Automatic annotation (TrEMBL):
Protein name in UniProt: ATP-dependent dethiobiotin synthetase BioD
Localization: Cytoplasm
A molecular-function term among this protein's GO annotations: ATP binding
Reactions this protein catalyses: (7R,8S)-7,8-diammoniononanoate + CO2 + ATP = (4R,5S)-dethiobiotin + ADP + phosphate + 3 H(+)
Family as reported in the entry's similarity comment: Belongs to the dethiobiotin synthetase family.
One Gene Ontology cellular component: cytosol
Metabolic or biological pathway, per its Swiss-Prot or TrEMBL entry: Cofactor biosynthesis; biotin biosynthesis; biotin from 7,8-diaminononanoate: step 1/2
Subunit structure, interactors included: Homodimer.
Pfam families, sorted: AAA_26
Binding site residues for Mg(2+): 17, 54, 115
EC number: 6.3.3.3
């Protein structure tokens, strides 16, 4: 049975959701029963469907009918970290609920892709970060980065924190949507040399989120075999 994975990023707005959706579609078309989860989500609630647009994208990609409380146990109606939501809205992040729902979802699917919020050091509680959550879920992670200048610094810091928390890294995926960033070939070379982590591939800017489009792009550009090993 394939191992479940946690999708994290080197920062917020690196395109984790789009990368996760592409991976989910590709895994599903490879015949794997894959479920999705975003433990914490934040932002302006959608009027229809799921509160979180990210969950809407992931659930559509996975073609799942799991209830929202399993897919996204906690939603904060402001664009902020769970810790900031705690301070500003007095809504306490519920770690036991997250882990309970994660266990339930794990039993419903052969494999889960769990998308984090921001980067690995996004604060959830005073001394509990996304890295603690990954550790508690006992999952390896895929790190999504972009190509803009500064990406190498962010990727190295992310890898170092994963080492500190003893989180296995499956690989790095480069989201190549910046028009003025590093050349992917050079970025891949430098990231692999500096982090000793494999780059599983890069994906171009995606404007067509249809199944066929995502499957074509990810099958061509991402080393799915290494991702599943």
């Amino acid at each position: 049975m394939p191992e479940s994975l946690f999708i994290t990023g080197t920062d917020t707005d690196v395109g984790k959701t789009y990368v996760a959706a592409g991976l989910v579609v590709t895994l599903r078309k490879m015949g794997i029963d894959v479920g999705v989860m975003k433990p914490f989500a934040a932002g302006i609630p959608q009027r229809k469907g799921f509160k979180s647009e990210d969950i809407e994208i992931l659930a559509t990609a996975a073609q799942v009918t799991d209830p929202e409380l399993l897919l996204n146990p906690q939603f904060f109606p402001i664009m902020a970290s769970p810790y900031t939501a705690l301070k500003n809205l007095k809504i306490k992040p519920n770690i036991p609920l997250i882990l309970k729902q994660f266990k339930k979802l794990s039993k419903l699917h052969s494999m889960l892709l769990v998308e984090g919020m921001g980067g690995v050091m996004t604060p959830i509680l005073q001394n509990y970060f996304v890295s603690n959550l990954i550790k508690d879920m006992k999952l390896p992670t895929i790190i999504v980065t972009r190509t803009r200048v500064g990406a190498i610094n962010h990727a190295i810091m992310t890898c170092k924190m994963c080492e500190k928390y003893k989180i296995p890294i499956k690989g790095i995926i480069i989201n190549n949507f910046d028009v003025d960033g590093y050349h992917v070939k050079e970025l891949k070379r430098d990231l692999e040399n500096l982090t000793r982590v494999s780059v599983l591939g890069s994906v171009p800017f995606i404007d067509d989120m249809s199944d066929n489009s995502l499957y074509r792009i990810f099958k061509k550009n991402i080393d799915m075999k290494s991702l599943l090993n």
